[in-house]
Amino acid sequence: MQNLPLISVIVPVYGVENYIDDCVRSLVEQTYPNLQLIFIDDGSPDNCPQMLDSWAEKDKRVEVIHQVNQGQSAARNHGLDCARGEYISFVDGDDFVQPNYIFCLYNGLQEKQADMAVGGVKYIKNGVCTQTKFVLEGQKTTEQNQSQTVKYLLENYIALWGKLYKRELLENLRLPVGRKAEEYAFMLRLLQGVNKSAFCGEGLYNYVVRENSDSHYIKPNYMLDNIQAIDEAHSICNALYPYEVEWCKSWLATLLYEFLSATAFGEQ
What we know:
8 helices; ten-stranded mixed β-sheet; disordered C terminus; 10 strands
């Protein structure tokens, strides 16, 4: 245990006081002990700032950064600037993880000498698991080439959370600030640096479905951001993944259709 490398977990926090205690508790109770837990209070207007400070007093691994509200991307970037770990993971402030989340992903990286490890996801609504996505049909750990990795993540969840990365993958990358749907192009660029991935079949990450969250419904005022993000992702697919360009085009067209449908039917 003494020789385990430091792993930094970055958590942006805004307006999630009903969820943040579960999130923090799930991280401080990880079976992997050597953690830097970075919580970025992005000018949260509720009791999250005080709640985070209270956790920091209880556990020295908890580091709280208070900043003026700038959005989730800026918060994550701030966390990246402060991360000291050899490996980095992201968790959202309204989600929580299984006790073996970090250990399972870390072991996957080590066993396969991989650059990135991906875990399964449980979708939680009103305290009930509504769906579980096991990576690679629940196989314990296996390797996939880059083409298969890109396909899997685009089809399932192209998100920063639920994964563990070698620090080098993120050193020269930062998320665009001031717009929504920022993860698509960022993740495609990040994946370009991944030579090998490890997949852990367990449902390690608990994604809490909230009716009023930005990711649950596509708001009309975010439409331009979504379209711009898809257009940028399309350009990156053409440049970086020529062997999958037709498949990527199909995925992007489906994504755009979902955005347009969500807005047309008033899901806001």
